[in-house]
Design goal:
five-stranded mixed β-barrel, about 25% strand, alpha/beta, about 30% helix, 9 strands, Nucleoside_phosphorylase_sf
Length: about 270
């Protein structure tokens, strides 16, 4: 089956469970996984229980659709994403986004952890995405047939919703978090960037770098969803500080920040019109 048929097949299995259609989808990156604790009437649908649904292969990505209510809204939390470096290409990476849209979600909140490039960033800071640079050489619309309803030549100038960015920035400050806006670069991974690559990204205008989010955001825009994305700066990128890069250190920073990140997402979802 092709990508659309596969997404429809998986979405149909979820619809058969008679769950409330979600209005908002929240994609949990590393360190953001406390959000489901705030959901009422929570129902977990493991990826592994769905035919044709891939499995997550990265530590910290459990692999569940979690349905529930928050602030009188129906929410689906995507606990686990697929990275390009795992194989399967952009088609696999955006599959959960397409399923969420087929289930009814009109807004998507993308979260991730990222390496800070800007000198005024510190581990634990937040960066709301204002724009991005796609350094993966992958576009999720490659091979997608254009239709009148969903053209593939989409304008990305307003990809990250200005109004949602403003609400998120305000709530982050109210929650005592250091927050910035900036440009995020997605690299293919899974190896971290070299210091030379980070210097290149800085010259290109990137403020933070990671291995997810951009292809998902592009595809969500193609599906006519409102998009907002936020990074937790879990470490400084290669060469910005003298510290060696270690995934265990990244997870430690995210674990310390997790309660505040989750509370922020709770407040943000509640505030979305």
């Amino acid at each position: 089956m092709d990508r659309r048929e596969r997404a429809q097949y998986i979405a149909a299995q979820i619809k058969d469970q008679k769950l409330p259609p979600p209005q908002i989808a929240v994609v949990l990156g590393s360190g953001w996984n406390g959000v489901p604790d705030f959901l009422e009437n929570k129902i977990v649908v493991p990826y592994a229980s769905l035919q044709e649904m891939p499995r997550c292969g990265v530590q910290g990505h459990a692999g569940n659709f979690i349905f529930g209510r928050l602030a009188n809204k129906n929410i689906v939390v995507l606990e686990g994403r697929f990275h390009l470096y795992e194989g399967g290409g952009a088609e696999k990476a955006v599959l959960p986004i397409e399923i969420a849209r087929l289930l009814g979600a009109e807004t998507v909140v993308l979260t991730n952890s990222a390496g800070g490039i800007r000198q005024d960033f510190c581990p634990g800071d937040l960066m709301i995405l204002r724009d991005h640079i796609n350094m993966t050489a992958k576009n999720p619309l490659e091979g997608v047939a254009a239709t009148n309803e969903n053209p593939v030549f989409i304008d990305l100038c307003s990809l990250y919703d200005r109004d949602l960015r403003g609400v998120l920035a305000r709530l982050a400050k109210e929650n005592g978090l250091s927050v910035h806006e900036g440009v995020y670069a997605q690299m293919l991974g899974p190896s971290y960037e070299t210091p030379a690559e980070v210097r290149m990204l800085a010259r290109l205008g990137a403020d933070a770098v990671g291995m997810s989010t951009v292809v998902e955001a592009i595809y969500a825009k193609y599906l006519k969803m409102r998009v907002v994305a936020v990074s937790c700066i879990s470490n400084m990128a290669a060469g910005i500080s003298s510290a060696a890069l270690d995934h265990k250190d990244v997870l430690a920073v995210l674990k310390e920040r997790q309660p505040r990140l989750s509370a922020l997402l709770r407040d943000f979802v509640a505030a979305i019109e």
